[in-house]
TrEMBL record:
Official protein name in the record: MYND-type domain-containing protein
InterPro entries cross-referenced by the UniProt entry: DUF4470, TF_DEAF-1, Znf_MYND
Organism annotation: Dichomitus squalens (strain LYAD-421) (Western red white-rot fungus)
GO MF annotations, alphabetized: DNA-binding transcription factor activity, RNA polymerase II-specific; zinc ion binding
PROSITE patterns associated with the record: ZF_MYND_1, ZF_MYND_2
Length: 1179
């Protein structure tokens, strides 16, 4: 993985997280220990909330590895955790972490705590400190950077620093005033943390008030005395990666990390800013108390929180290299971050003797994909996921690249979902299941109400898993046969991926775009600009993971490079400038050698003429005087940079550029060059030059006279490159250039290629083939066939060599095999009395199979289309709600787990207020699809609305019976105890108990059933085939809220080898007995319910939401629900399309008479905006 270099420009410090906290263990079994990696961790909200969600009944080890490239973020995190461990008062802890101004006591506590922390300045000292057992340091550099910040925090208040302190305080006050003047009166801010309540006005209104108050006062206080006492600037807000200064992001808000749905959903009156702050404080106090309890009461070794300073790609690379340390490699240690030469060297004590984790069951990437791209995220995390059915990756995004949420994911991926799933072995869980239990319909609804030209945030979390793990019958310790591609198809696929990533770089591409598309593309490039090296890393991963033979790979690469050259001639001529870098990186990563790289000859003149041997690759160092960057500092942009070699009529671009502030010292000779780099610790603020380096094929430096070869550092041309840069830098967009023979500014060194990484596979190699996989013979390979476009995998063909003597004889004599789909990822072949399972890496459409028989050669081929996305037949529909086993533990595969006892209860007393949002939220799960899943969604809708009493004048239904419409049988009853807020998933959940009325228990419960019927039982009709779906769903509903009990050795699931146990109506209990009668306190408060207690099992029911990139949301009948809410949201967020004023400060806004979408506060604003708005207006 590699990221293009960009000029840092203005840096923003994020001392507080910008999304609400989530539970990081929501998709793994409750008793399974977990190694959890947080890339770009931000503040510790997710760690604290995850620990808060743990249950004391099932102890397990949690090992968090938190990385961030800002030392200020990590220093504040450890400061916070240490204060909680030391028992510093909760009020003081809150003030120090969230307030920009402190009172006397808080300021004194901050200084004291920082001085205490800074005493442990070595990793050995830290390990023996009061915090070392739980808080661990991953590198020496991490601790050194933190200690430096703690010292800066404490020394900030020293009398000798009074003048500097005044200057910084003035800077903070000026910045706060600027932010307040630029921020709309109505600001989304923390209101998205209200989830479904965002659809009403109160959260947005109150959050906007609180946001302004925070930036006006620098605190969350509403009391005048407390405000008056808060006079000390908080030093932790002045030191970050940008060094000293006030660089806090303009969206920072202490309310964002917390969950506000219960506050607004249970409000009995008007919610105030003080209510919002008190609610957030109470959550923070509860999370902190849970963490302190874990530190003091959990067994030693069960909790570890590790910190690593470095950008996400560097940390991932270091962890991957360490996990491959048994193999001799020459991979250089990755740099901590861009613009520094400091390397990320894992502490040997932590990662060797203590064995800190380098593979993880959970990887959370925050919204990194917005900044480094989805490709880099998948490349850096795929090798780090543990080989476990429960392993999970979370990606998150806030920025949008399209105006349609249905195409948002597609725009961010590098290929079709079927291709991504097969090449990388990971797929978005929702695309396989056709639903998600995480809700973001409030985000989608908000985006629907805004003008297409608005650049709004759209928060979306995607859960990724290995696709085959959703097939309970899949044997996960079995390595699949190697995948075989047609060389031409694979080469064409690589070419299509390449064009998808880089095709928009060509200036000719812009000429065919509409102005609004150019603006949108410019926004995308402003956030992320892919590099050719990332593409090469993808090829390397595919090459090794799929175990492609050397002969086939060489053919693929030859065809690919030819296609690339042809494409450059026909369609993308600008791309030819980067082909030499592709050749260099292919060789450097050890996956292919272009013939020209081995033909470099020593020139007769110039510096290379002195070298004894000319290697295939050379690293070029260009020293750029610091003042040359003044051109870039004069603009607000953060342009992407690359290096260019130009001579005669040739020009070659190189995007993988390293940069650092400092000086090069030449300590070698002309024949054997050797360089020493001395970095300036002041970094961006120094007057030292910048040294950039990049790798080139040596032949590039020998194709022309040395004195004619020009080396440049330039700005990359893309839609984000504005006219101001062109004016400043000239037509070549060069920041600085020097001749190859300029020994003051240009240096050369031989470059040693990297060793290829270890082969990656999706599972371990077994010692033997299980009987079910080898009864007839051994599967030899899986062939991959692309569709007509070459961009999507159409089918997979498994070949089975018939080897069993009896089966071979029968097959040769004409026996016809029976071939059927046995599970989402498996086909079963039967010959005579022998049955064998053929496994596929992703869900398949078995009903459209094609069977080829080769009786003379004794093999069978079974070709099946792939079932991605969910809208295809078969696939995951055969097992829509899997419960998977991990080391003896069970967990739902596509329903997140909920800490049911930690979730706040929804107050059902005020039904009128509830109707304002509840029914609309539950109804937002509905889609136009007509299938089993839709019927189950409809039944869940009825269960949840009847349980809340929001339908008509009915009271909340406490007991609900699912009645089969065809047979009128009822064998499933639900006892709804409470409805709770599922906080981090922004939805609601029915805390209920299920009673399967099997024949075994009917004699005992029959007398009590009559009493229930007298009280009143609400019946919900379920239609043909739906009862079977409910029986598949029930085990997952049980597992998602299981927190106090475990499955025993005599579990019926194990004995019978299937989940659920029964699928037919009135045929028996679909659930095992392990959870029956356990955790049923909710049944004990009612004397009649108490009699059913021994026979029920606790479940958690919640909506199954549509997936925007699989199935359209808010269409058909759902529009009836969405339209009035959309109108409310639109009115709430209305602002002048030109000046961004709201009604509260400019009176009534008026809609554009043409499009009826955008608003204006005055005729002058409308006229001024017409030039740009007319592109969208349909007048």
């Amino acid at each position: 993985m590699a990221l293009s270099l960009f000029w840092p420009g203005k840096y923003f410090f994020y001392p507080i997280g910008n999304t609400s906290a989530v539970c990081l263990t929501r998709d793994i079994p409750p008793e399974t220990s977990a190694n959890i990696l947080l890339l770009a961790c931000g503040d510790p909200r997710n760690v604290l909330y995850t620990i808060f969600c743990e249950t004391p009944d099932l102890s397990r080890a949690l090992d968090f590895t938190c990385c961030d490239f800002d030392p200020g973020v990590l220093a504040r995190n450890v400061l916070l955790l240490s204060m909680i461990i030391d028992g510093v008062s909760k009020e003081t802890t809150w003030n120090i972490f969230f307030h920009m101004y402190l009172d006397d006591d808080s300021q004194a506590a901050l200084v004291s705590q920082c001085q205490k922390l800074a005493m442990y300045s070595s990793v050995a000292d830290w390990r023996s400190s009061p915090y070392g057992a739980v808080i661990r340091m991953g590198t020496d550099h991490t601790l050194a950077a933190m200690c430096r910040h703690w010292e800066l925090y404490a020394n900030f208040y020293h009398p000798s620093r009074s003048e500097q302190r005044k200057d910084l305080q003035k800077k903070m006050e000026d910045t706060r005033r600027e932010i307040l003047s630029d921020t709309p009166v109505v600001n989304m801010s923390s209101s998205r943390s209200s989830g479904p309540l965002l659809l009403r006005y109160d959260p947005v209104h109150v959050a906007s008030q609180q946001f302004r108050r925070y930036w006006e006062t620098g605190t969350t206080f509403t009391d005048a005395t407390q405000l008056a006492n808060s006079t000390h600037p908080n030093s932790t807000f002045f030191y970050s990666r940008a060094h000293e200064g006030f660089d806090v992001h303009y969206g920072t808000d202490p309310m964002i990390p917390f969950h506000h749905a219960p506050l607004f959903g249970n409000a009995k009156g008007t919610v105030t800013v003080q209510n919002l702050v008190e609610s957030s404080r109470s959550q923070f106090y509860a999370w902190s108390a849970a963490f302190r309890t874990a530190v003091t009461t959990w067994k030693e070794g069960l909790l570890a929180i590790r910190f690593l300073l470095g950008d996400a790609l560097a940390v991932a690379s270091a962890l991957q290299n360490h996990s491959n340390s048994s193999v001799q490699t020459v991979h250089p240690m990755p740099r901590v971050a861009a613009w520094t030469a400091c390397v990320l060297k894992l502490n040997p004590e932590e990662y060797a003797r203590v064995a800190a984790p380098v593979r993880f069951e959970v990887i959370d990437t925050s919204n990194l994909s917005d900044h480094v791209g989805m490709l880099n995220i998948l490349l850096c995390t795929a090798p780090l996921l543990a080989h476990s059915p429960c392993s999970v990756l979370y990606t998150e995004s806030l920025l949008t690249h399209t105006t349609d949420s249905a195409t948002e994911l597609e725009s961010k991926l590098f290929a079709d979902l079927s291709v991504v799933s097969v090449l990388l072995g990971m797929a978005p869980l929702d695309s396989l299941s056709g639903f998600t239990s995480l809700c973001n319909t409030h985000e989608q609804l908000t985006s629907l109400t805004l003008s297409p030209s608005d650049h709004r945030q759209y928060h979306q979390i995607i859960t990724w898993r290995q696709p085959s793990t959703g097939d309970p019958s899949f044997i996960h310790d079995f390595t699949l046969p190697p995948l075989r591609f047609d060389a031409n198809q694979l080469a064409r696929l690589f070419c299509d991926i390449y064009v998808h990533l880089f095709g928009t770089e060509d200036p000719a591409h812009f000429m065919n775009l509409k102005p609004e598309d150019i603006v949108r593309l410019g926004r995308k490039f402003a956030c992320f600009c892919p590099s050719r090296e990332s593409f090469i890393v993808l090829l390397s991963l595919v090459h090794n993971r799929l175990q492609i033979s050397a002969a086939l790979w060489s053919g693929v690469m030859r065809i690919f490079l030819n296609l690339l050259s042809d494409d450059a001639l026909r369609t993308h001529p600008f791309d030819r400038l980067n082909h030499r870098e592709i050749h260099a990186q292919l060789y450097r990563h050890g996956i292919y050698s272009v013939p020209e790289l081995d033909k470099a000859r020593r020139p007769r003149v110039g510096r290379l003429s002195h070298w004894a041997n000319i290697p295939p690759l050379v690293r070029v160092f260009l020293t750029v005087p610091r003042n040359e960057f003044a051109k870039l500092e004069s603009i607000p942009n953060t342009p992407w940079l690359h290096c260019v070699i130009r001579y005669s009529q040739s020009e070659h671009g190189f995007q993988s550029v390293d940069a650092a502030y400092g000086t090069l010292i030449d300590r070698g000779s002309k024949a054997k060059p050797d360089l020493l780099f001395r970095e300036d610790p002041e970094g961006h603020r120094t007057h030292c030059p910048v040294v950039v380096s990049f790798v080139v094929p040596s032949c590039v430096l020998t194709e022309a006279a040395p004195e004619t070869i020009d080396i440049r550092l330039s700005v990359r041309t893309n839609p984000g490159s504005n006219k101001a840069l062109l004016f400043l830098l000239g037509p070549y967009m060069a920041v600085f250039h020097a001749c190859l023979e300029d020994t003051d500014h240009v240096h050369l060194l031989p470059e040693v290629p990297l060793s290829p990484p270890d082969t990656l596979s999706s599972a371990f190699v077994p010692l033997h083939f299980p009987k079910k996989l080898s009864a007839i013979g051994r599967p030899s390979h899986l062939a991959v066939d692309m569709d007509g476009t070459g961009k999507r995998i159409a089918s997979l063909t498994a070949r089975l060599d018939v080897e069993d003597v009896q089966a071979k004889e029968q097959f040769a004599k004409g026996a016809m095999p029976t071939v059927t789909q046995s599970s989402p990822c498996a086909m079963q072949v039967v010959i005579g009395g022998l049955a064998q399972t053929l496994l596929y890496p992703i869900p398949i459409v078995g009903s459209e199979r094609k069977v080829r028989l080769a009786r003379k050669s004794s093999y069978i081929e079974v070709a099946v289309p792939v079932a991605i996305p969910y809208l295809r037949p078969d696939g995951q529909r055969l097992c829509p709600f899997p419960v998977v086993r991990t080391n003896g533990s069970l967990s739902p595969w596509n329903l997140h787990r909920v800490p049911i006892n930690r979730l706040p209860v929804l107050d059902l007393a005020n039904v009128d207020r509830l109707r304002l949002w509840y029914d609309a939220h539950v109804g937002s799960q509905d889609t136009e699809q007509l299938d089993l899943l839709t019927n189950i969604k409809d039944s869940i809708h009825h269960v949840m609305t009847k349980a809340a009493g929001t339908q008509g004048t009915e009271k909340p239904a406490r007991v609900i019976a699912l009645r089969d419409d065809e047979t009128q049988d009822c064998d499933t009853m639900l006892f709804v105890n409470r409805i709770r807020f599922d906080l981090s998933s922004h939805t609601i959940v029915c805390d209920a108990f299920v009673l399967p009325t099997s024949h075994a228990i009917m004699p005992t419960i029959s007398p009590f059933i009559g009493q229930l019927l007298q009280r009143g039982v609400t019946s919900i009709r379920v239609y043909r085939g739906e009862m079977r779906g409910w029986k598949q769903l029930l085990p997952a509903l049980v597992e998602r809220c299981r927190t106090t009990w475990t499955h025993g050795a005599n579990c019926e699931y194990v004995a019978k080898g299937k989940i659920p146990l029964q699928l037919k109506t009135s045929a028996g209990d679909p659930l095992c007995s392990c959870g029956r009668g356990k955790d049923v306190d909710g049944m004990l408060h009612d004397n009649l319910w108490k009699k059913f207690g021994p026979f029920v099992t606790r479940i958690a029911i919640s909506p199954l939401f549509a997936v925007s990139y699989v199935d359209p949301v808010f269409t058909g009948g759902t529009e009836d629900v969405a339209s009035p809410l959309a109108s409310d949201v639109k009115e709430t967020l209305a602002e002048c399309h030109r000046c961004r004023k709201q009604r509260s400060i400019s009176g009534e806004l008026r809609r554009c008479s043409g499009c009826k979408i955008v608003y204006y506060c005055s005729e002058a604003c409308q006229k001024s905006d017409w030039k740009s708005h007319k592109l969208d207006c349909n007048r």
